[in-house]
Amino acid sequence: MEEKQHVYIIGSKGIPAHYGGFETFVEQLTSHQVDKRIQYHVACMTENSEKSDINQKHFEYNHAKCFNIDVPKIGPARAIYYDVLALNFAIQLAKVNRDKHPIFYVLACRIGPFIGRMKKRIEALGGRLFVNPDGHEWLRAKWAYPVRRYWKYSERLMVKHADLLICDSQTIENYIQETYRSYEPETTYLAYGTDLEKSELDESDSEVREWYQENDVSLREYYLVVGRFVPENNYETVIREFMKSETTKDLVLITNNEQHGYYTKLRKETAFDSDPRIKFVGTVYNQELLKYIREHAFAYIHGHEVGGTNPSLLEAMALTKLNLLLDVGFNREVGRNSAVYWKKNGTLHQMITGLDSPLEELMTLKGLKKPEHIDTEFSWETIVASYEDLLMKF
Question: What is the DSSP letter of 339?
């Protein structure tokens, strides 16, 4: 019987996935698995599993062996504690199972201060530590200064102890190589993936008609923003610029703004509620409906500037014809010559005003190419095949 390559995945809330980039990644990695020589083990938060009516400590999903971790609600440090508990449990599990050369793949750099001791235990098993450094978490505005300092310190220690850093953005890989040159980090670039299939819904479906009617939105007569409602996604810049534009189209924002202090602050500072074109419509959990909304937007506006290959941007590039992206390295490496780029210098409103023309004319005028690289480089099938090749090399 052929020896399995055991891979323990730590750092997502778990599968079945209910939300989140890392959760979707683990769901896709396991559901698209082709090489059966790999045995995935996935750490899950108990509360995530309970959403799918899974109450056992150990369960199987997508042929992955999953284990639930109970995490007390201790505030901001909860995610750190979860990763520590999950990695310790995984190391013990690999020891009991007598796995040969197990790989422990930790998603994000939350547990740097604790990783040194755990790395020794991994080495004692003949195992290796892989890390996905995620994005620049230490730049996120939601964190107080001491927390940002922790994130940066933790990142440094994770880089120092990792046997391999898997970066889902070339910009992040370059940053790791340049910033931590003294550690001579071993890195590789493996992108995030996206679903390339068009929506199964059409204009006559009830959920489509109801959503557009309820939100007073017309097909192809709106700019779209989708993403987490956080300052580093530049909602303020996008809203202020849109308000200054002369477009008659709407700005539809699909985000978790409900009962959010940042929403109140933005409304007070920009008075966006005085502009009927600006429409916060909450979240859309129906993925087929969300695809349809993306497909039938006039254009997508992407203001994310912190992070790796952003899932929302990949989905936009796959489904929305015209994409206006903030001009940062993360976005350029995905958009390439298939998108239009804007800077935070107060000229986005002029771009929007100048875009009030038929879409096909605009695409020709801007010299935009079809984003064929999304199909070839960012499909989940391609990403998973690359992961399997990598995991079987070690």
Answer: S
**Which residue type occupies 199?**
S
Q: Give CA–CA dist 21/229, Å, rounded.
A: 15
The DSSP element (H or E) to which 254 belongs, if any, is: strand 250-254
Cα separation, 187 vs 21, whole angstroms: 21
Tell me the CA distances in angstroms from 65 to 43, 56, 68, 90, 259, one per residue in order. 9, 12, 10, 11, 37
In angstroms, the CA 45 to CA 82 distance is 8
Which tokens go with 389? 């090749």
CA distance 290 to 362: 24
Residues of the chain with pLDDT > 90, as a percent, come to 80
pLDDT digits (tens, 9 = 90+) for 205-219: 999 999 999 999 999
Q: Where are the beta strands (DSSP E) in 31-153?
A: 38-45, 58-61, 64-69, 103-107, 128-132
- Report helix, strand or coil for 388: helix
**pLDDT for 394:** 77
- CA-CA-CA-CA dihedral for 350, 353, 355, 357, to nearest 10: -150
Would you state the structure tokens that stand for residue 293, as one six-digit string? Answer: 């909304």
Average pLDDT, the chain: 93
- Are the beta carbons of 170 and 333 closer than 8 angstroms? yes
β strands within 216-317, DSSP E: 222-226, 250-254, 278-282, 299-302
Of 349, 352, 293, 300, the closest CA to residue 321 belongs to 300
Token pair 């994770």 in the structure block, residue: 158
Q: What pLDDT score was predicted for residue 1? A: 59
Residue 75 pLDDT: 84
Between CA 316 and CA 296 the distance in angstroms is: 11
Residue 11, judged by CB atoms within 10 A of its CB (0-12, 13-18, 19+), counts as buried
The answer, yes or no, to whether residue 58 has pLDDT greater than 80, is yes
Q: Residue 166 corresponds to which amino acid?
A: I
Is 257:279 a contact under the CB 8 Å cutoff? no
Provide the whole-model pTM: 0.92
pLDDT of residue 306: 79
C-alpha 265/C-alpha 354 separation (Å) is: 30
pLDDT number for residue 108:
92
Between the two ends of the chain, the Cα-to-Cα distance in Å is 19
